[in-house]
UniProtKB/TrEMBL annotation:
The keyword S-adenosyl-L-methionine does not apply. Its main location: cytoplasm. The keyword Signal does not apply. Residues 75-142, 156-231 form the Phosphoadenosine phosphosulphate reductase domain. This is FAD synthase.
Length: 263
């Protein structure tokens, strides 16, 4: 598993676990190397009534439009280790590979560290940095202040690609390309996965065998900081030994309860 050898169990590891050998799994051991081929194959083969496939297609075309409007130097992806931007990072990587096949440089990623980050999130962002060859633009503290520092320290950046979905708080008015609000540091917010559902994000991560933060396999369905995030109570169960456990995030059946572990 290369870079992932020391990391906590991911979905991909679980699929390889010995107890699962009786089932047939479409496992991709090199999902990042094969990103462009697999993503574009998915997009090219989807039918008009396939909501998931159409959402992936839409995300790819928003990213392609972004790459027409801005150079790679003018773009960074907002990456905090959450599931939405994990799916998005893979899409961005795939679209860049398709448009610039010989590109060897690093993609810029913005990571604003919260006051009390989960160590698992920190670790996952580092693993992703190495695996996707990211240049991390690292800040700490409030998002708004950090964006002010981003503008001052990296004046070439004009657009931030984000994993925001319409169901996120205060996001229902957003479009694929929306400037930040007038009282925020000015960046173009690029929102390729706005119309994705909770289930679409998990389908994408699991179908493409992408690594994701291990907290999601321990019942967390939406990640904030350590002081305001818990496993989702809807995923709780008691095992045969009477031990309280949590099912993985992708098993959550009611997507409206995604943030039930956050306060
Ligand atoms: C670039 C940017 C521009 C913003 N502009 C505005 C604005 O104009 N007006 C306003 O009211 N609020 C703005 N916000 C705040 C935003 O609306 C959310 O409040 C914030 O993203 C946290 O939401 P969440 O907890 O739901 O996180 P998420 O659902 O995880 O956030 C959605 C997406 O934002 C990005 N993101 C979130 N947190 C981070 C982080 N710590 N480091 C890097 N990327 C991150 C990721 O791409 C993530 O997928 C902005 C945030 C960012 C990162």
């Amino acid at each position: 598993m290369g870079v992932y050898e020391n990391c906590e169990q991911t979905y991909s590891d679980k699929e390889l676990a010995p107890q699962h050998t009786e089932s047939i799994v479409n496992y991709d051991s090199q999902p990042i190397v094969n990103a462009a081929d697999r993503v574009y194959k998915l997009v090219e083969s989807c039918s008009s009534d396939d909501v998931y496939g159409n959402n992936v297609q839409k995300a790819v075309s928003v990213l392609e439009e972004c790459l027409q409007k801005y150079s790679l130097d003018e773009i960074c992806i907002g990456f905090n280790g959450g599931k939405d931007c994990t799916a998005l990072l893979h899409l961005y990587h795939a679209v860049v590979k398709r448009k610039y096949p010989g590109h060897q440089g690093k993609l810029k990623a913005l990571y604003i560290k919260s006051k009390l980050p989960f160590p698992e999130v920190e670790k996952f962002t580092q693993i992703s940095r190495d695996k996707y060859h990211l240049e991390m633009l690292h800040f700490e503290g409030r998002i708004k202040d950090s964006l002010g520092q981003l503008k001052a320290n990296h004046p070439s950046i004009k657009a931030v690609i984000m994993g925001t979905r319409l169901t996120d708080p205060y996001s229902s008015h957003l479009e694929a390309f929306s400037m930040t609000d007038a009282d925020w540091p000015q960046f173009m917010r690029v929102n390729p996965v706005l119309h994705w559902s909770y289930g679409h994000v998990w389908k994408f991560l699991r179908d493409l065998c992408l690594p994701y933060c291990s907290l999601y396999d321990r019942g967390y369905t939406s990640l904030g900081s350590m002081n305001n995030t818990h496993p989702n109570p809807l995923l709780q169960y008691v095992d045969e030994h009477g031990v309280l456990k949590y099912r993985p995030a992708y098993t959550l059946s009611d997507p409206t309860k995604e943030r039930d572990g956050r306060n």
